[in-house]
Amino acid sequence: SSKQVMSDSGVWLLPVAGVLLVGYVVRHLTAKQPLIERGVLTGRVPAALLVSFLVGTALVAVVVEIPVLARLTMTNSQTTAAFVLLRFLVAVPIGALVGGLLLRRIGPAFVAAPGLVLAGGAILVMSGWRSGALSDLVISTLVLLVAGFGIGLAIAPVNDAALADAPESAHGVTSALVVVGRMMGMVVGLALLTAVGLHRFSTEMQKVDRPNAQTVRDAGVVQVHTVFIGAGVAALVAAAIALFFLGRSVIAARDVADPLES
């Protein structure tokens, strides 16, 4: 049987996409009123967008692959697999709330970077999970909570750094760009990681003379692990960018007077 990662149409769709991207950049640079106003992508805004892209990649990898791993190693029930993912999802908004509170005290870099280190480390731990790992309720829950909490911590600092350096008149566009960056990370990042994961799956299956349900399941676990490794690395790279480029001073409260001091 034949196998391939990219569709036959990709041979011409990718070049067309490249031409359209170049065309958009040229149009943006020459238009009198571009879609994104000139002067918006300045200061820490590009770094914030890149961090948001990588955070999206790490986030969606966990959201997609944890239920898959649960189905492969723990349960045949999609509902049970969804409840496993819930342990991660619950921690994300909690981390976002805590990140917003800490941001007023220690600045975006020192909130986002440690959070992404926690998330990256936890996701890399997931890349070693095999049969029975998710059944260990205490350890698996702790790792999933740490991953979700760490990703949540990075949300407010990324937005804060971008908005602080963008013109006030462009705050709406800048905030939208941060969200778009995260969504692009989810789509493009997951696509790339899945392509690599499928290659690993194919490689593992080629090693088996007579495939059966267990060998297919084992190869599927390898695919999931591959995606987790890529997602963990993405989170750690985002942590490094956040630490060095998002700023270490308190931004959110910089221009807000403390009522206790007035």
Structure explained in plain terms:
With 262 residues, this protein is mostly helical. Helix content is 74%, strand content 0%. It has helices at residues 10-30, 45-73, 78-106, 109-126, 137-165, 171-206, 213-245. The radius of gyration is 21 Å and the shape is flat.
Overview in brief:
The protein is an all-alpha fold.
Strand tally is: 0
Q: Look at the helices and sheets and give the structural class.
A: mainly alpha
What order do the SSEs take from the amino end to the carboxyl end, as H and E? Answer: HHHHHHH
Uncertain parts:
251-262
Task: Provide the helix percentage.
Answer: over 70%
Q: Quickly count the helices.
A: 7
Please give the alpha-carbon distance between the first and last residues.
Answer: 75 Å
Quote the beta fraction: under 5%
Radius of gyration: 21 Å
Overall shape: it is: flat
For the sheet with most strands, the description reads: none
Mean pLDDT: 87
List keywords for this structure.
mainly alpha
What is this structure's SSE topology?
Layout: H1 10-30, H2 45-73, H3 78-106, H4 109-126, H5 137-165, H6 171-206, H7 213-245
